[in-house]
Amino acid sequence: MTASTSLPMDNHWLPFTPNRQFRHDPRIFVGADGMHFTTHDGRQVIDGISSLWCVGAGHNRKPINEAIKRQLDTLDYATAFQAGNDQAFLAAQKIAQLAPGDLNKVLFCNSGSEAADTALKVALAYHRARGEGHRTVFIGREKGYHGVNFGGMSVGGLPANRKAFGAQLLPRVDHMRFIHDPVNHAYIHGEEPVWAEDPLLELEQRILPLHDPSNVAAIIVEPIAGSAGWYIPPKGYLQRLRQICDKHGILLIFDEVITGFGRLGTPFAADYYGVVPDMLNFAKAVTNGVIPLGGVICRDFIYDAMMNTQAPEHAIEFFHGYTYSGHPVACAAALATLEVMAQEDLFARAGEQGRMLGDALHSVIKGLPGVVGIRSLGLAGAVELAPNGSAPGKRAFEVFRSCFQDGVWIRPAGDNLVVCPPYIVSDAQIDQIVSAMAKAIRQHA
Ligand SMILES: Cc1ncc(COP(=O)(O)O)c(C=O)c1O
Predict the structure, then answer these.
(1) Over 60: is that where the pLDDT of 282 sits?
(2) Ligand 1 centroid from CA 52, angstroms
(3) Can you tell me the distance from the alpha carbon of 360 to that of 354, in angstroms, rounded to the nearest whole number?
(4) The domain spanning residue 178 has which CATH number?
């Protein structure tokens, strides 16, 4: 049992956390450096999930901290409407240079959830600007996660996230089937599984005819389903999705909030899979997590269509934006983060350490009692556990708690254990994380 805390516990309602359980078993961080947290009771805990896919370069990176401090002393904040700031232009340029193809126009926001809603709104506005305002159907995928705002939640497909809010989700949204084959591809080790069947036939033969493709505004997917538990698409899936969208004039949105900025060993999953979407959502690792920043990178033709308006030049072309869009401190943090990533070649390192992580997960954990699948690609992996009787998710939660006691922070996602360490993770630290997982899995078999 974790030592109790003298902190006031009565006011902070924790997000996506079992608050009742937390009160008698608090997990509180008071410091972080490199790969480790310091807990309120003075223990060191290795960050096995990059603080939820954010901290690619590791914690407490001085160049990023210094850039933020400098920016605070130079331009702390400036309104984002009818004005810009130098850091936002520079960060947008840097991000566009990293993005593939003609993904060149960056709309900043503050989070992945806002990026999802921003991208959906761009899709509607773009079609309307071209005289196709009837294109209002959105298609997501079962078990997809695009944040918690109403747009992202509507195209998302995690049942627990939708259950309480069903009546108020967006209308005219459909979902493609989930991409998981637990019979033939329970174990995936660094490759793209080759499926005998085509999971996109359902989109072509049922979903699109049902709505009529001419009514569909956009299809949004995570290239790899992350929050659900690191589910990897079958070989050719994203390429086929691209072709289907092209055939019908449907915009393709990749939600790269967790795959963006190096997780697969490439700048984006779009690079890994060789598919350029029409919009690419990002957040998290862009600032190493230290300051909230998100955004949507749009291809040139979307921006051009929105600018090609008969409205007078003083008129705003897109009625959307946030007070903190392109916040100078967040953009300075992004520039410093991407500089650190480049100088230390961290995207490539994520690819290399990803192979190590996959090897370790498959060699140490495959075959342990209760393990029914392992999926690894890039510097991330998931171990799927058989649910514990009538309590889905309980075994994964208990394994997560035991790992924490053992000084290792992983993430329970339903019956999956997800691990996605910072790109700086060493071989020995990968061993430590995977050994702790194995020990806890045995303990809770
Ligand atoms: C793919 C994806 N989209 C959107 C989000 C939401 O991001 P945020 O929590 O910053 O709103 C997440 C968060 O994990 C995510 O994984």
Answers:
(1) yes
(2) 9
(3) 10
(4) 3.40.640.10
Could you tell me if 158 and 280 lie in one domain? yes
Model confidence at 2: pLDDT above 80: no
Q: Are 368 and 432 in a shared domain? A: yes
Ligand 1 within 6 A of CB of 112: yes
Atom of ligand 1 nearest to the CA of 112: 7
**Beta strands 371-376 and 251-255: pairing type?**
unpaired
Q: Is the CB of 140 under 6 A from ligand 1?
A: no
Residue 200 CB–ligand 1 contact under 6 Å: no
If asked whether residues 233 and 136 sit together in one domain, one would say: yes
**174-185 pLDDT, tens digit each:** 999 999 999 999
- Give the global pTM: 0.98
Ligand 1 atom closest to the Cα of residue 255 is 1
Q: Is the pLDDT of residue 3 over 70?
A: no
* Amino acid at position 215, single letter: N
Q: Which residue has the tokens 């999953």?
A: 269
Rounded distance between C-alpha atoms, residue 326 and residue 136, angstroms: 28
Examine the domain organization and report whether 183 and 109 are in the same domain. yes
End-to-end CA distance of the chain: 20
Q: Does ligand 1 have an atom closer than 6 angstroms to the CB of 222? A: yes
Residue 390's pLDDT band, with cuts at 50, 70 and 90, is confident
pLDDT of res. 1: 44
Regarding the beta carbon of 283 and ligand 1, being less than 6 Å apart is answered yes
Determine the structural domain holding residue 257 and report its residue range: 64-343
Q: 174 CB less than 6 Å from ligand 1?
A: no
For residues 262 and 341, the answer to whether their CB atoms sit within 8 Å is: yes
- 402 located within any domain: yes
Pairing of strands 371-376, 103-109: unpaired
How far does residue 53's CA lie from ligand 1's centre (Å)?
9
Chain-wide mean pLDDT for the chain? Answer: 97
**Relative to the CA of 222, which ligand 1 atom is closest?**
1
311 and 385 belong to one structural domain: no
